[in-house]
Specification:
Helix 1 links the parallel strand 1 and strand 2. Helix 1 runs parallel beside helix 7, helix 5 crosses helix 7 and helix 8 packs parallel to helix 10. The protein has a 7-stranded parallel β-sheet with strand order 3-2-1-6-4-7-5. It is an alpha/beta fold. The longest helix is centred in the last third of the chain and has 17 residues. The chain folds into 2 domains: about 160 residues, Alpha/beta knot; about 60 residues, Orthogonal Bundle (Helicase, Ruva Protein, domain 3), CATH 1.10.8. It has 10 helices and 7 strands. It is globular. About 35% of the residues are buried.
Length: about 280
């Protein structure tokens, strides 16, 4: 392993876990391994896999990682992207394709600058990477608060999985080692709200609550249009960068709207008025 010094400890900022790298439906074990190697190059160790096609553990991944998986330790495995991001407070979806989804679009540099702010507030960040053939689907992109796109030659914008992880990891490493530049930090991203962003599990709980009531009242109709309607509704709220208190308020609003209206209380007669 050229360039590896086993006498050195993991080079990272104490107390800063770094963004979780979430590979959604990766196809080849080799690509998972090279992505893991790219992560450890920049001190990242939280690797999560969603429905890897060739299963996990994977011998090809172990070989391609060149020892990186020893630094990562336990790779977390999930059946759903929603479960993989449940403990995170900020999620970015990597994609180079134009989509009919309106979201803030940031570069890796801007996203990693914001990651520092999220971590300083006690939150966690995750980066979604799609499968090698077609990337993330629209449902996965909708789960993110922003889209992360690398500025590349638009005539040939395709990056392989490890290359994309390298670019994100490099920018995180630069920011956390006080080497950031001031030409693209946070531009296009939502400002950090006081108290930080709501955990993804809370936001997803609100979505499920809202969608359940919309289904009960036949709003998400006809059935063939339901997926697109759900994505649009979720994306609307994701752009807001909700805090935990805002999520709780929204859930309270939904609950209040579906309860039978209370009878208006009769006012007491004015003082001194015998009626």
């Amino acid at each position: 392993m050229a360039g590896t010094d086993r006498t050195k400890h993991q080079d990272r900022v104490p107390g800063a876990p770094g963004p979780a790298v979430i590979l959604v439906a990766p196809q080849l074990g080799e690509n998972v391994g090279t992505a893991a190697r790219a992560m450890v190059n920049f001190g990242l160790t939280d690797l999560r896999l969603v429905r890897p096609r060739d299963g996990w553990p994977n011998a090809y991944a172990l070989t391609a990682a060149s020892g990186a998986l020893e630094h990562i330790g336990r790779v977390r495995l999930y059946d759903r992207t929603e479960d993989a991001i449940a403990d995170l407070t900020r999620v970015y979806a990597t994609t180079a394709r134009r989509r009919d989804i309106v979201k803030p679009t940031v570069t890796p540099r801007a996203a990693m600058a914001e990651t520092q702010a999220v971590e300083a507030a006690g939150g966690r960040v995750g980066i979604l990477f799609g499968g090698e053939r077609s990337g993330l689907n629209n449902d996965d992109v909708t789960l993110a608060q922003a889209v992360l796109t690398v500025p590349v030659n638009q005539a040939f914008a395709s990056l392989n999985l490890a290359q994309a992880v390298v670019l994100v990891g490099y920018e995180y490493f630069q920011h956390t080692h006080n080497a950031q530049t001031d030409d693209d930090t946070g531009r296009g991203s939502a400002p950090m709200p006081q108290g930080g962003f709501a955990p993804a599990a809370e936001v997803l709980g609100f979505f499920e609550h809202l969608e359940s009531e919309l289904d009960a009242h036949n709003f998400l109709y006809p059935p063939e249009k339901r997926p697109a309607m759900v994505r649009n509704i979720r994306n609307l709220f994701q752009r807001a960068g909700l805090t935990l208190q805002e999520v709780r308020t929204l859930r309270g609003i939904v609950s209040a709207l579906v309860r039978p209206p209370r009878k208006q209380r009769r006012g007491l007669p004015p003082e001194g008025d015998s009626g």
